[in-house]
Amino acid sequence: MGGGWPRYTLSVLLETKRAALLALAVAGCSSSPGAAALVDLGALSTPPAVTARDGGASVLVGGSVLWMFGDTLMTVTGGDGFNYRSATAAWGTAGDDPLTLQEPVDAAGAPYQLLPYTADEAAYNAANGPMERYALWPGSAIVAPDGSGAWLFYQRLLIHPGALDYQPLDVGLARLVGGSTVAARDPAPLFSAPTPAYALAALVDGEFVYLYGVTAVSGQLDSLCSVLRAPVSSAPDPAAWATWDGTSWNADLSRAATVLHGPPGDLSVSYNGHLGSFLAVSSGIFSNDVDFRTAPRPEGPWSNARKLFTSLSPVSGSAYAGKEHPELAREGGARIVVSTARPTGAFSGEVRLALVSLPDR
């Protein structure tokens, strides 16, 4: 997402070139645990018809955990005529069983599209998909200011035939009522390309909400991450957002400074009480490693990346979309829960959780 390194998307799942590319890129990667104490908690549950999905951002809403997923593969055709989804959602608990999710399905057993297509988008997908299609990828979410549900930040893009041919279009805001898995999209976008897709790692700190965007560096195993913020109550207004330009918050979004390097298209940012600092968690590029960084403020300065742990090896390629879920943290943040998306076959995959002990301050 965010113009960053490619995710395990539906169009890629349908191409054998993707598996070959990733297999070459991660050849020789270690699957042994990192230095941190690690407990593999298992995979999040799915409806019987779902064989793969990616993403896995979450937010605590009214005592329940909203989980959001990107491209979702199914063995059935839903009532809307599609046999895939670009966004789905489920609800879980922050208690002892975070893996069991509740997710309504239609009469065919298909989960609902979290971010409904417009009539034009649906018609385009029906005529051209799945290799050529509009995709709506949820990036992150915050609790709505009135507490009734969640505000979702998502990326809209066009997927074209061929390997990794994605065309970012814009970032939008959608509103979800607590308990539902179908959101309502605001009609106008927040940001449009070529502005980076600021939809990741939504963080509320004080009166502000922060969003991060990631852009891959062409020809290098690197990416550039920048940050925006707006007053929470004004987040639906594109004019309310300002970017960190290296010295101050600037309403000219083209002045964005790079605040950290390396996240491959997804990450989380939270305040961690155990460390007494902000904590960023992300996967490595073409690696099963999950890294972390710390900073005194959401805009940094961020530390260099340090390895947190090595995720369970997938069947092919590498695990990806690593991120923390602060609502599941234990012992005041000394142990955190991290998810990764893990391919388990050519058309199958899972979002898997690990409980990881953070180092001391």
Describe this structure in words.
- There is one protein chain.
- The chain contains three helices and 23 strands.
- The protein is mostly beta strands and 361 residues long.
- It has one domain: 5 Propeller (Tachylectin-2, Chain A), CATH 2.115.10.20.
- The N terminus is likely disordered.
- The strands form five sheets. Strands 11, 12, 13, 14, 15 and 16 form a six-stranded antiparallel beta sheet that branches. Strands 6, 7, 8, 9 and 10 form a five-stranded antiparallel beta sheet that branches.
- Share of helix among residues? under 10%
Indicate the CATH topology.
Answer: Tachylectin-2, Chain A
Strand portion, in percent? Answer: 35-45%
Distance separating the two termini: 31 Å
Q: Quick gist of this model?
A:
This protein is mostly beta strands and 361 residues long. The chain is built from three helices and 23 strands.
Topology summary:
Layout: H1 10-13, H2 16-25, E1 38-43, E2 50-61, E3 64-74, E4 84-85, E5 88-93, H3 119-128, E6 133-143, E7 149-159, E8 166-177, E9 184-185, E10 191-192, E11 200-205, E12 208-216, E13 223-231, E14 242-244, E15 249-250, E16 260-261, E17 268-272, E18 277-283, E19 289-295, E20 306-310, E21 320-324, E22 335-345, E23 348-357
Antiparallel strand pairs: 1-23, 2-3, 3-4, 3-5, 6-7, 7-8, 8-9, 8-10, 11-12, 12-13, 13-14, 13-16, 14-15, 17-18, 18-19, 19-20, 21-22, 22-23
